[in-house]
């Protein structure tokens, strides 16, 4: 995600004209949006390295509300999806790209982000266990919404819902859901989009 514009050794604390231009190019955001996000990021992560414990302060508006016992797992999943260089921190560019992905209207980009969130271990495939844990985390969020047919799918039994959804998504019957299988279902199946949209 962020590696496309990352320069070796750059800490992003100073928003130079070069960095601003690169950020605008990769995100499509206007200069002022980038400046605002830069101020916001560094007000929370003064060192330029956002820890998992502070992620919700910056990205809370984009994350679903879940029960406390499930939010820790879901936060780890989101953090892993954003921390693209796996250094245990989110830097400014990773943060900025995550904001772009959370805001995007592109169904392909949205599906890609959601897949990376579900794929907690980052092996580019989703297991039944990863799918079930994500559905359990999102169950409370869906219950809080009105007129959400996604809750009908997972309301009574997340395990049964996981089995049903897994059967739909695992087209090649490999025992895992690949990114192309997920994206294909995201584009074609309204229930899949409803289940994983937050």
Automatic annotation (TrEMBL):
Belongs to the recoverin family. GO terms for molecular function: calcium ion binding. This is EF-hand domain-containing protein. PROSITE patterns: EF_HAND_1, EF_HAND_2. It comes from Rotaria sordida. Transmembrane segments: none annotated. Residues 76-105, 106-141, 157-192 form the EF-hand domain. Keywords: Calcium, Lipoprotein, Metal-binding, Myristate, Repeat. InterPro entries: EF-hand-dom_pair (IPR011992), EF_Hand_1_Ca_BS (IPR018247), EF_hand_dom (IPR002048), Recoverin (IPR028846). Coiled coil: none annotated.
């Amino acid at each position: 995600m962020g590696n496309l514009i990352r320069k070796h050794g750059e800490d992003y604390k100073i928003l130079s004209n070069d960095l601003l231009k690169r950020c605008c190019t990769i995100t499509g955001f206007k200069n002022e949006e980038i400046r605002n996000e830069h101020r916001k990021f560094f007000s929370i992560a003064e060192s330029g390295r956002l820890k998992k414990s502070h992620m919700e302060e910056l990205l809370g508006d984009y994350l679903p509300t879940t029960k406390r016992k499930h939010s820790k797992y879901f936060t780890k999943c989101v953090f892993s999806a954003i921390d693209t260089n796996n250094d245990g921190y989110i830097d400014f560019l990773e943060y900025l790209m995550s904001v772009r992905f959370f805001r995007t209207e592109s169904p392909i980009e949205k599906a890609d982000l959601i897949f990376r969130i579900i794929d907690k271990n980052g092996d580019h495939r989703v297991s039944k266990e990863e799918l079930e844990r994500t559905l359990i985390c999102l169950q409370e969020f869906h219950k809080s919404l009105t007129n959400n047919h996604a809750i009908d799918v997972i309301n009574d039994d997340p395990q049964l819902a996981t089995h049903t959804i897994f059967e739909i998504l695992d087209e090649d019957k490999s025992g895992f859901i690949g990114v192309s299988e997920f994206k294909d279902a995201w584009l074609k199946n309204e229930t899949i989009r409803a289940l994983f949209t937050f």
